[in-house]
Amino acid sequence: MKPSYAKLQSKLDLQDLETILALQRGRNLAGAAERLKVDASTVFRAIKRIEKDIGEVLFERSRQGYLATELGRELAGYAEQIETRLEEAREAAFNQSSEPSGKLRITLTDTLLHSVLLPVLARFTASYPRIELELVTTNVLANLSQREADIAIRVTSSPPEHLVGIRLGTMRSAIYAGKDYLATQPAGKHYSEMDWIALDDSLPDHPSQQWRRAHYPKLAPRHKASNLLAVGGAVVNGLGVGIVPLAVLREHPQVAMLEGPVPELDIGLWLLAHPDTRYLARMKAMFAFLRTAIVLPA
Q1: What's the confidence (pLDDT) of residue 140?
Q2: Between 52 and 197, whose confidence is greater?
């Protein structure tokens, strides 16, 4: 009787591996279908056929989606290796032109997108007309190992050890209020007694939340927002006092800095990538560009 791996080798092809990898990354049929540019029913039928062919379950179905089994993860790993080698081959084939090209998917927060990246990005796109950008905003660090993004830009004191990257600088923050709002407050009133704008409960451990609780434990924010960009907008438009990065409100004429920059709120800004993709020309171009283009206010 032939061992099971012989059956596996005879039934599995590159398209099957691509489908397995897409479902592991997409976590559900819709996510996999979007990656493969097919409909969800096609993915469903393909996975059922592959599992029948090899006689093993590759994904456990649950309310959270499709979770890869040990064998499913192993096969997805082989698919990733093939994907990486294909990228290498393409890079070698087009290396003659020396002009980086292709799609570059960058994940970062709304705050970083608008205050740090977008102000400099037009210079990059002008220099590299063959690179296509996808900008994905989220507070969650994308899984770069599973190619949810090529590059992540994040504020962190401890970047993940399995990623490679460079520190672009230090994000500093201060306590701000709108000048029009301050004009309505009694002389000598301390900012801790004014209306505060803070991040909402989805980010309870954000450094700004921890600092406020440590220094003013009885202070209850009157207004809340989902990100620091919104907090900054609320400050500018006179809703009250808030902790905002200097990069968001740099020299804004309608606001006043009440205290800061606050050293306890300093945090590193990192440009991160997976080691397997760092060598690609378009990745190298973005790393080299952002290393010098981004200048954070001190």
Answers
A1: 65
A2: 197
